[in-house]
Design brief:
Blueprint: H1 3-10, E1 13-15, E2 25-26, E3 36-39, H2 46-51, E4 56-59, E5 69-72, H3 76-87, E6 96-97, E7 102-103, E8 108-109, E9 114-115, E10 120-121, E11 126-127, E12 132-133, E13 138-139, E14 144-145, E15 150-151, E16 156-157, E17 162-163, E18 168-169, E19 174-177, E20 182-184, E21 190-192, E22 199-201, E23 206-207, E24 212-214, E25 221-223, E26 228-229, E27 234-235, E28 240-241, E29 246-247, E30 252-253, E31 258-259, E32 264-265, E33 270-271, E34 276-277, E35 282-283, E36 288-289, E37 298-300, E38 305-306, H4 307-317, H5 320-329, H6 335-340
Parallel strand pairs: 2-3, 3-4, 4-5, 6-9, 7-10, 8-11, 9-12, 10-13, 11-14, 12-15, 13-16, 14-17, 15-18, 16-19, 17-22, 18-23, 19-24, 22-25, 23-26, 24-27, 25-28, 26-29, 27-30, 28-31, 29-32, 30-33, 31-34, 32-35, 33-36, 35-37
Antiparallel strand pairs: 1-5, 20-21, 37-38
Length: 341
């Protein structure tokens, strides 16, 4: 593919290079070879960009000039993502139903569906057009799913859940498992609280491998359109997540958590139940959220505090033993105090 074709497809501008350069693939900045295209968006990687063997580099509009051919873009990371799609098309699945699949007579599956081996689609299910259900996917009764649904092997959608268009479930993702609800009696025994309310998933949502979106006892669990959920994430019963938010690996939301739009919860963040996280907030890795977080805030630590304050905490942690020793030495009656007299 010629560099000019790539530039046109990405809406980028060629600088310092021939539009006829042949590009055969994509690679990272440090591993790229001749004939490949790469990207860099952070100025601290300028030296890597200058030494790369790639034939072309996607850069920001104001990135320093390189001797290598450049494609200038307002969003190099997004442009590179589109470049990958130019060279690596996902596998196509021919429409048809595998003979081992079990589809209830009352279920409605739209046009051009691919239903793989041992898939189970229960009664009164409705699935839109162009669905792909790979091996061992199970869709429980009364589920409603929009167009372009893609479920990898062993994904499960439980009873009465509703999914929008363009939803992708990676391997082992479960939508609508029972919420963690139990009540203790006078003898100390735990009794299960039924969880009849469904999980509702908006359009363009991706839920990655082995993540669980729980159903609730008295309110719906909701995932807003455009939100992306990483592997091994737990969304507790009755939680609401807004649109275009990101939940990284091993995030855990206790029940009735409210997460706004465009929120980023990074790896291993834990959120106490009934907390509210405002639009655009960012919670850094391994933080514990025990109180509401304002819109636009960046917080860190456990319990989570303003990120700049947390940086100050972190800077003095290693000095705490010396500080404690100094404080003890200043108390009247200590050895150091006696010597001073």
């Amino acid at each position: 593919m010629k560099l000019l074709q790539i530039a046109n497809a990405l809406g980028a501008r060629i600088e310092n290079g021939s539009p006829d350069i042949a590009i055969t693939g994509v690679a990272g900045i440090e591993n790229a070879a001749h004939g490949q295209i790469t990207f860099v968006s952070n100025p601290k990687y300028a030296s890597a960009a200058r030494s790369t063997r790639a034939s072309a580099v996607i850069v920001t509009e104001d990135f320093p000039a390189l001797s290598t051919a450049m494609l200038r873009s307002k969003n190099p990371y997004l442009a590179f993502a589109h470049a990958i799609a130019l060279f690596h098309q996902p596998p196509a699945y021919v429409s048809g139903i595998h003979p081992t699949a079990v589809i209830d007579a009352s279920a409605k599956v739209g046009k051009n569906a691919h239903v793989g081996p041992y898939v189970v689609i229960s009664e009164n299910v409705e699935i839109g057009n162009n669905a792909v259900l790979l091996a061992h996917v199970v869709i429980y009764r009364k589920v409603t799913i929009g167009d372009n649904f893609f479920a990898h092997a062993h994904a499960v959608v439980r009873e009465s859940c509703r999914l929008g268009n363009n939803v992708m479930l990676q391997n082992g993702a479960i939508v609508g498992a029972d919420g963690f609800g139990f009540a203790k009696d006078d003898t100390g025994r735990w009794h299960k609280i039924l969880q009849p309310m469904p999980a509702l998933i908006g359009d363009d949502v991706e839920i990655q491998a082995n993540s669980c979106i729980d159903r609730a006892s008295v309110s719906e669990t909701r995932i807003g359109s455009g939100t992306k959920i990483d592997n091994l994430v737990q969304v507790g019963h009755g939680s609401h997540i807004g649109e275009h938010s990101l939940l990284a690996s091993q995030v855990g939301l206790a029940g009735s958590t409210e997460v706004g739009n465009n929120v980023i919860l990074t790896g291993q963040v834990g959120v106490v139940g009934h907390c509210k996280i405002g639009d655009g907030a960012i919670v850094t890795p391994q933080s514990g959220v025990a109180n509401d977080i304002a819109a636009g805030a960046i917080v860190s630590g456990a319990p989570a505090v303003d990120h700049k304050l947390w940086l100050k905490y972190s800077a003095i942690l290693s000095k705490l033993p010396e500080m404690a020793k100094l404080i003890r030495s200043l108390k009247p009656g200590t050895t150091e105090d006696t010597k001073s007299h």
